Amino acid sequence: MKKILVLNGPNLNLLGERETQVYGKTTLNDIKTELNCLANELHAEIQFFQTNSESGLIDAIHNAKDTCDGIILNPAAFTHTSIALMDAIAAVKIPVIEVHLSNIHAREDFRHVSYPARACIGQISGFGKNSYTLALRALIDFLH
Predict the structure, then answer these.
(1) Is 100 annotated in the active site?
(2) Which of 29, 60, 102, 135 shows its CA 20 to 30 Å from the CA of 128?
(3) For the whole prediction, is pTM greater than 0.85?
């Protein structure tokens, strides 16, 4: 059974209530529930974590090195600023897929740059909550 860490960055704890015109009405708990169901079908185990702290994300990535087979990461606003997240992903040498609910490439120019993506095996964005399920399927396929 593959162990997958699903990491969520700043403000994602407010999904379903913040900027619903951009991020939709789905909550982070809704996403977790859906991913757990899919993980069962795919014979995988999900660990789910959200933090508003960049250091919390980095610590979780470091800790996953010895306990997880892969990571799904929504770095949220840290996408566009965090070289530290990129370096953490590169350091642990486990596959990471970056996800975003919105299409970051169709939004403001500053959102077009993703530092963490440079160390990831791929990026999925623009499919709302389905970005997560697509990432889980892709990661499990990659690991097999």
Answers:
(1) yes
(2) 60
(3) yes
